[in-house]
Design brief:
Layout: H1 2-13, E1 20-23, E2 29-36, E3 39-45, E4 48-53, E5 63-69, E6 73-74, H2 78-84, E7 97-108, E8 111-120, E9 123-136, E10 139-149, E11 166-177
Antiparallel strand pairs: 1-4, 1-11, 2-3, 2-11, 3-6, 4-5, 5-7, 7-8, 8-9, 9-10, 10-11
């Protein structure tokens, strides 16, 4: 009886353990898709980082804090990259990082939603990032996509017309349980 009481006390007194994850940058990708001149354009950012705490059994302490070095974005098309990285585009000289910070993460249907703030070029916008998550043998794989309007972040101007009016950020993240 004493052992049962002690176990019950420990379980009720201990907060849920949050799981930290270490991202595998070689297996992960932060990319984007958009439309330019009637064609689909894809690209990616080479330098980024993410701090992730997530336990699907207890989302109360889940959080994501991710930063992207915008100067490392590339489509493989020199002219498009020049526009994207210009002062009118992502402006890496004055706004080197884009950042997503979650405020909460919720279960949604067969996946999850990370509610938070996306900052690009110094402009904050509330966003909801839907993603799927599979965890097996201490390895997590998450895939998500978030469509944004470039003008909401001051990227480009009216002279760009419909070019890249909307951009879909595409994520594939693989991470290992931190010890």
């Amino acid at each position: 009886m004493l052992r049962s009481a002690l176990a019950a006390l420990l379980l009720t007194a201990s907060p849920a353990l949050a799981q930290d994850w270490t991202v595998d940058p070689e297996a992960s990708r932060v990319g984007f898709e958009t439309s330019a001149f009637g064609s689909t354009v894809t690209g990616a950012f080479d330098q980024w980082s993410a701090e992730i705490t997530l336990d699907p059994a207890d989302l109360t302490s889940a959080r994501i804090d991710a930063t992207v070095s915008v100067a490392t974005g590339s489509t493989g098309n020199g002219q498009l990259d020049q526009s994207m990285l210009s002062a009118e585009g992502l402006a890496p000289e004055s706004h080197a990082l884009a950042r997503f910070t979650s405020s909460d993460i919720r279960a949604a249907g067969d996946g999850y939603e990370a509610h938070g703030t996306l900052n690009i070029r110094g402009a904050d916008q509330a966003v909801v990032l839907p993603f799927t998550l599979a965890i097996a043998d201490g390895r997590a794989i998450a895939d998500g996509a978030l469509e944004i309007a470039r003008l909401d972040y001051g990227v480009g101007d009216a002279s760009w017309g419909e070019t890249a009016a909307s951009v879909t950020i595409v994520l594939h993240i693989e991470a290992d349980a931190a010890e």
